[in-house]
TrEMBL record:
InterPro entries: TusA-like, TusA-like_sf. This is Sulfurtransferase TusA. Residues 17-41 form the UPF0033 domain. Belongs to the sulfur carrier protein TusA family. It comes from the Bacteria. PROSITE patterns: UPF0033.
Length: 85
């Protein structure tokens, strides 16, 4: 099964970034720009298909101080959830 953190149900998302079809490093670069558009404590949802994002996004959250809430698999893509510091 998955070793990745699974996001809890019922998260209230402030903004969604569609990064499906983008390859590394674009999903992470777009995430960095998009999180600037929400307020502290709000949640950004990132939709992606790049498997590298499974490591890149949690690692960036740890370095930047944001809370990585986890991911969920959807039909052909993943949903990542980040709470802005």
């Amino acid at each position: 099964m998955s070793d990745f953190k699974v996001a809890p149900d019922g998260l209230e998302v402030a903004r969604t970034l569609d990064a499906k079809g983008l390859s590394c490093p674009m999903p992470l670069l777009r995430t960095k720009k998009e999180i600037e558009k929400i307020n502290s404590g709000e949640i950004l949802e990132v939709l992606g298909t790049d498997p590298g994002s499974r490591n890149d996004i949690p690692g960036w959250c740890a370095r930047a101080g944001h809370e990585y809430l986890g991911e969920k698999e959807d039909d052909g893509f993943m949903r990542f959830y980040i709470r802005k510091k």
